[in-house]
Amino acid sequence: MYHEEPKVQQNDLTVLRTSSLTGVIERELEHLILTGELKPGERLNEIQLSARFGTSRGPLREATRSLQAKGLVESIRNRGVFVRSVSPTEALEIYDVRAAIFGLAGRLLADLVTDQMLARLNAFLDQMDEIAASKNFDDYYPVNLAFHDYLVTSTGNATLVKEYKGFVNKLHLARARGLVQAGGLSVSNREHREMVDALASGNRERAQEAFFRHVERSKIRFRSTLNTGASA
Amino acid sequence: MYHEEPKVQQNDLTVLRTSSLTGVIERELEHLILTGELKPGERLNEIQLSARFGTSRGPLREATRSLQAKGLVESIRNRGVFVRSVSPTEALEIYDVRAAIFGLAGRLLADLVTDQMLARLNAFLDQMDEIAASKNFDDYYPVNLAFHDYLVTSTGNATLVKEYKGFVNKLHLARARGLVQAGGLSVSNREHREMVDALASGNRERAQEAFFRHVERSKIRFRSTLNTGASA
DNA sequence: TCGATTGCTATTGTAGGCAATAAACAATGG
DNA sequence: CCATTGTTTATTGCCTACAATAGCAATCGA
Fold first, then answer.
1. Mean pLDDT over residues A30-41, rounded?
2. What is one Pfam family matched by this protein (chains A, B) (predicted)?
3. Does a structural domain hold residue B232?
4. Most buried among A167, B19, B26, B144, using CB within 10 Å?
């Protein structure tokens, strides 16, 4: 008991010391947006939200400015701040840029890959195969996410990681957001194996192309579901 | 006289109507940072700057939050906001990501390229050859910039353009900033021709690789000037 | 009835003020 | 002489208050 108390308190203090109130609000808002509690197009009422967080409007406004720069909200003067709504066109653009960045991850990893890393990746593949076989698609999504996260993080390129995650977040604001996930669900694990095999070969260009194409195929799936006029 | 007065006033009003004071300050600060008037590591004094812009501290703080999200400044609680200083390591990371994005530009352009576009690009190449021959390096840099800008913009992918420019800006904050330019100066126009040729071939992968490698070579030049221990 | 105009209200934009913090310096003790 | 502790000051963090704006509804005139 005595050992935990100071630790917890120190954590709280550290949080308040490191990140300002603005930072806390920003993360909170980002969470609300990404979980869909604040939906695309919805206005962020300053008074209402600052009351909810128990602060004044100042820090909240600073937080929204930051989110605006990150592309999660847009601000219209004298009208307010709104959760961004990513159009299908922009979503397609983002898929391309994300493909390029993910491709870079493949290229970099081809030079960094170790046996240990390959073992970990194969474990991921097996796990996803298993889940896919059981048709338990709700379990597939998080593992798939962890797989991609592991790959991107393993490059050791912090700039790349940050960018990649930013785009993944933005895609959550795409209209017909469900389609983004739907596209991912039908991903055959074959593409993943191609990526891992390319890494194992140590061939930079091949790995880059495999990673790039994986995202491009997601894009194509996204687009085709769009055309069929499916709705949420 | 009478005809101009209202127009000027309307321009001012339009600017203030469209973008808030925060937006104006943000652009102004970004300019100060990128031109080097505010140097990496330097603190942005709120009182001083808000007095300079003739506003209160609120809008200024919002502007700096936005710049923070863009990676141009960093904020330390209770200490202030500082112009970011990009380490050599981070600069190398940025070069890689920029290469990936620029490579995507090449890939996209390979499918979009027209004779008219090729003519324009060849005009750029000739112009740069000319300048290089005259050894007037100060003229080379802006044309080189315009060349790259033209390429990126021609993709029609606004997300790509925004990202690319963001990274170019960030690289301006790299320590030994002169080296970034110095690296560019010695660029042989041959690389540029390779890029244009790749576009003319219409081969996606080839174009992507040519564009990618062009930036990678810049990175290598940057790194080598770093290792020789050259200083500003 | 319809359109324009004019007030009203909710909300954002900006300003300025007080409290809290950190860095620099002075004072004190060993 | 050095280390440590108290004090001062510049500066940031946050809040409250006021001004300005946009959207809306009611009113007025045709």
1. 94
2. GntR
3. no
4. B26
